[in-house]
Amino acid sequence: GIQKNMSFDASFWNKYYVIRQKPIEWYDNFEGFQELFDHVLPKEPFDRGLHVGCGSSLWGNQLKKMGLVKTIVNVDYRSVIEINFLSSILTSSTSESAIDYMKANV
Asked: How far apart, in whole angstroms, are the C-alpha atoms of residue 10 and residue 77?
């Protein structure tokens, strides 16, 4: 398991995501919340969305794909190389140009 004191260490997460290359949804997959979104969120999409601590989650991409946001920025504090690699994989699978990945300055 993940030790609590390691969870804020960027080098730990860099190694973790090299080992685990599949997307990880920490809370639940997007579909588990879709009914809630349908009832709570407005019918018109938000102009922008921010997914902080995105890791390898597909949530930001799913929000864009489902039309809940027009543009989405996924932010994490992993290395830029890994973020760019992840971005190329995920954006190619959704073919959306309004999805960005950025490295946070921690």
From this structure: 7
In whole angstroms, what is the distance from residue 15 CA to residue 61 CA?
A: 23
Residue pair 17/82 in contact (Cβ under 8 Å)? The answer is yes
Q: For position 93, what pLDDT does the model report?
A: 54
CA–CA distance, 104 with 95 (Å, rounded to integer):
24
CA atoms within a 13 Å half-sphere pointing along the CA-CB vector of 7: 7
pLDDT, tens only, 4-58: 555 667 777 777 777 776 777 877 888 888 888 889 988 899 999 998 888 778 8
Give residue 48's pLDDT: 92
Q: Is the pTM of this model over 0.90?
A: no
C-alpha span between 35 and 58 (Å, rounded)? 17
3-class DSSP assignment, residue 103: strand
Tell me how far apart the alpha carbons of residues 25 and 22 are, in angstroms, rounded to a whole number: 10
